[in-house]
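so im writing up the methods section and need the D-3-phosphoglycerate dehydrogenase record in one place, dumping it here so i stop losing it
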Amino acid sequence: MSVPLLCHVPLEAGYPERFAAAGFELHYAMTPESRADLDPAVAEKIRAVLTIGTIGLTGEEMDKLPNLEIICAQGVGYELVDVAAAKQRGIVVTHGPGTNSSSVADHTLALMLAITRQIPQMDAKVRRSDWTRAGTDVGGMFGKKLGILGLGNIGEQIARRCAGGFDMAVGYHNRNPLTDSLWRYFDSLHALAEWADYLVVSTPGGQGTAKLVDASVLRALGEKGFLINISRGSVVDTQALVDSLSQREIAGAALDVIDGEPKVPAEIIPLTNLVITPHIGGRSPEAMNNMMTLVIENLQAHFGGTPVLTPVRA
Ligand SMILES: NC(=O)c1ccc[n+]([C@@H]2O[C@H](COP(=O)([O-])OP(=O)(O)OC[C@H]3O[C@@H](n4cnc5c(N)ncnc54)[C@H](O)[C@@H]3O)[C@@H](O)[C@H]2O)c1
Ligand SMILES: O=C(O)[C@H](O)COP(=O)(O)O
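--- predicted struct ---
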């Protein structure tokens, strides 16, 4: 017998078959409207939900799925899954630590290089039939200072690429220093920002990190500094960033995420010292395979009566 699974996201080619072969019957609710209007007959039988951190599941939504046993966030983040509400209801929550770190680290380096070397701007210039080189203000990353806010799986991979490939000095700020890290610890975010040429944000999202990067941190980063955000838009005060970029208080920013995504604030469109991508850092064939394999393993463990591999604990 197949286990009914409600999916909040589209599955790429080949994955529906893998879920079916693993014993799961897929139902889809990919928009807020379809989730709100879910057929009660389908809702009644759902035993598992596959979601992402930026969609998540509230306690109220859990109550509409009376036979729900497990919620799997496919990637690392699970900020909009109400983990406390799930615990109260005896529902297990899992996520995918480490599944996409390599892809996000590659993407971060691409963003850093793109904003430093002005790749999108230069590409646009050539497409306007403009091959002039005077006045272009492109810099380099070699030997510069990298500051990481939230050194975990992704931050560590970024640090290794920057130190090994670009001879960069690496510092980080976490709430507490790591005991076995190669990199220099800063006990305040402001001190890290003042020191760094590149401030990379790689903390989780959610209330605990909301607007950690505010106007004062951007001022500390200064006019030669770049802000790179690949974690969650909520960690950066978007208005402060827009002001800082408009007034050239920092050199530039490169973002894979922005608060309120997929909506993008109109003020960022004209900014020429900003590069932005639509939350694709964790997307690559390898990362997708890692994420989906772990989701299926967690589901099979749960429904096979053994502990899940990567639980989220409230
Ligand atoms: N752009 C993407 O596609 C993409 C892909 C994967 C993950 N992410 C985001 O990146 C985040 C980090 O991923 P990871 O795999 O490195 O997670 P991780 O848990 O390994 O690392 C996060 C680090 O942030 C630190 N941290 C937490 N709160 C902090 C705070 N208030 N101040 C300073 N440091 C703090 C933690 O101690 C930890 O070391 C995820 O939670 C997710 O939101 C984005
Ligand atoms: O938290 C994550 O792992 C990333 O945001 C990637 O999530 P995605 O599955 O939505 O791409």
